[in-house]
Design brief:
mainly alpha; two-stranded antiparallel ribbon; 4 strands
Length: 338
């Protein structure tokens, strides 16, 4: 796929950016012009028409750009694919109580409800940092890897694309209400409900600015609690760079990966079961990518050209080690006739 995109650059550098321009134009025609979509289209166009390094980063960013468009498109798929009767509300909370319930004063509550009783400005700020900066962190980390470590950038993009595709499919197949919705609206499912920053409202109030209300109040999916994709964001970079990162960088990424799940539960955005499923999705996608990579390596080993006895190059699919073994066998046979 990437080879085909590179070929398009040679014929027409403007052509590869047309999908993002087309989506922004389609949304503007059917709904309204969107600044974020126009910005993505502009950045993609500039990168696609830039120099070799800019085009390389653009090609590597295609999975991320695809995810952005797919997530945004969910807001238009949702009304025609999900009904209120299919959305898990209190049912998911009941599962959470059964699996992870916490005893408090003789009652069983969810970890979200237990942590709500421990709320403090310090914990609010600690949890607001990863929830407020994850988009910038992901973009900065990917851009750095794209320039300095292309192989790690590809692994980053592969993990993000695979995990999000499975997550988006789960949103549509098993829609689920987040803890804040059940706490605010009860068990009745209202598909017209808007997103909420939940406990981050306290941070907005302390800052005197509605940053989180704007960020989470206009999300494409309200009933997409299962799985938590927030907890997967720190893992893309951590997994991709674990072997090559410096000790301070690795420690910082591990801390980030640990704080995010706590923040997801503490802020009332996700249940523990959402977090567990999100982490499981990353593990599954990573395992599959390793298996596919090993299979590709083994296949390439059978495709290497090998030298025959006459010294010419052969394109036989027989691996090099097999040809060498045959040479040794023939040499031993000749020695017996001397």
């Amino acid at each position: 796929m990437l080879a085909r995109v590179r070929a398009l650059f040679e014929r027409s550098p403007f052509l590869p950016s047309l999908p993002w321009i087309g989506y922004a134009a389609l949304v503007a025609a059917l709904d309204r012009p969107r600044v974020d979509l126009l910005l993505v289209a502009a950045v993609a166009t500039i990168a696609a028409c830039g120099g070799a390094r800019a085009r390389r980063c653009y090609v590597g960013a295609i999975p991320a750009l695809t995810l952005f468009v797919l997530y945004d498109a969910l807001r238009y798929l949702w009304p025609v694919s999900v009904s209120a009767s299919r959305v898990l509300g209190c049912e998911l909370r009941d599962v959470e109580l059964a699996l992870f319930g916490v005893g408090v004063h003789g009652a069983i509550v969810t970890p979200n409800e237990w942590l709500a009783g421990l709320a403090s400005p310090a914990l609010d700020l600690l949890c607001a940092l990863p929830y407020g900066a994850y988009l910038g962190i992901m973009a900065t980390q990917y851009t750095y890897l794209c320039v300095k470590k292309p192989a790690e950038a590809r692994r980053f993009a592969e993990l993000a694309l695979g995990t999000h595709l499975v997550g988006f499919a789960t949103y549509l197949l098993v829609p689920a209400a987040p803890p804040w919705y059940v706490a605010t609206h009860g068990c009745a499912i209202d598909l017209a409900a808007r997103g909420s920053p939940a406990a981050l409202t306290r941070v907005d109030a302390s800052l005197g600015y509605g940053y989180f209300a704007s960020l989470y109040g206009h999300g494409a999916v309200v009933f997409g609690a299962l799985p938590s994709l927030h907890v997967t964001y720190p893992l893309y970079g951590l997994i991709a760079t674990y072997r090559t990162a410096s000790a301070p960088s690795r420690a910082l990424q591990i801390a980030y990966a640990l704080v995010m799940p706590f923040a997801a539960i503490y802020l009332g955005h996700h249940y523990v079961i959402d977090v567990v499923l999100g982490l499981a999705y990353v593990a599954i996608v990573y395992s599959l990518s390793l298996a596919l990579g090993e299979a590709s390596t083994r296949q390439r080993a059978f495709d290497w050209p090998v030298a025959d006895l006459s010294g010419s190059q052969s394109t036989s699919p027989v691996p090099r080690w097999s040809a060498t073994k045959r040479l040794h066998t023939k040499s031993a046979s000749l020695r017996r006739f001397r």
